[in-house]
Design brief:
The chain has a 10-stranded mixed beta sheet, with helices on both faces. Helices cover about 40% and strands about 20% of the residues. It folds into 2 domains: about 140 residues, HUPs (Rossmann fold); about 120 residues, Rossmann fold (3-Layer(aba) Sandwich). The radius of gyration is 19 Å and the shape is elongated. It is an alpha/beta fold and about 270 residues long.
Amino acid sequence: MRKILIAFDGVHYSDSALSFAAKLNEKAQVLIAGAFLPQTNIANLWLYFGTGVSGKELLSLAGEDEKEAIQKNITRFEHYCIDHGIEYRVHKDYLDFAIPELIKESRFADLLIISSESFYASIKNEPNEYLEETLHDIECPIILVPDQFEFPACNILAYDGGESSVHAIKQFSYLLPELTSNETMLVCANDNVNEPLPDELNMAELAARHFSSFSLLKFEPDPKKYFNTWLSEEKAAILVSGAYGRSSLYRLFHKSFIAETIKEHQIPIFIAHK
């Protein structure tokens, strides 16, 4: 049984994150741990990193209505899990719960699911630096889920020739074996289409061992044009990519064709780093 951590920020109830976890539970039982972050606004995350303000101090910035909303979200989460037959836990000391505690909790989870429209809204421009900092420090793989999504029937494995992307693909197959029977495409993304990716054949050989319906996709000479056209025909996909922030995923999102595509199509993203 896998332990899945779901982060709820402030009064935002992560319907899509919980729905994604519930779909996984239908295929193989999971334990869901709900982490309720006491923040009045996602922009206040800088307080955690810049000043070391505790969760209790930050929560004191919120009004009574917001505190009540957080408690209602906890109750709503509990009822949802009971109604769907999902084993669950709630971080009981949520008044003291902050980003450092979320990072620590991720050490003891198999997977973190975050519903984050702010991530998708900023991906085409400058990244949300606070979310970026959090994602970089989280100690388990992450799935970012937009508010509206279709559960994956197709896997897109982004390979840029780097160690991080290989690690992410392996982690995806280990943690989500129920998705390995999906149609799967290994997309070779390279800023310079005139140069071959290192170890491309080795990567294809590995992926073919883990994904039963596997194909290799290369887009030349205009990857941006053809990738967008192809992805628009994929109705339910998940992108698998390497570490966010300081490695290959940053380059993939912000210096290549995939950034615009993800914003347009709003698909879940699986992220893993060592």
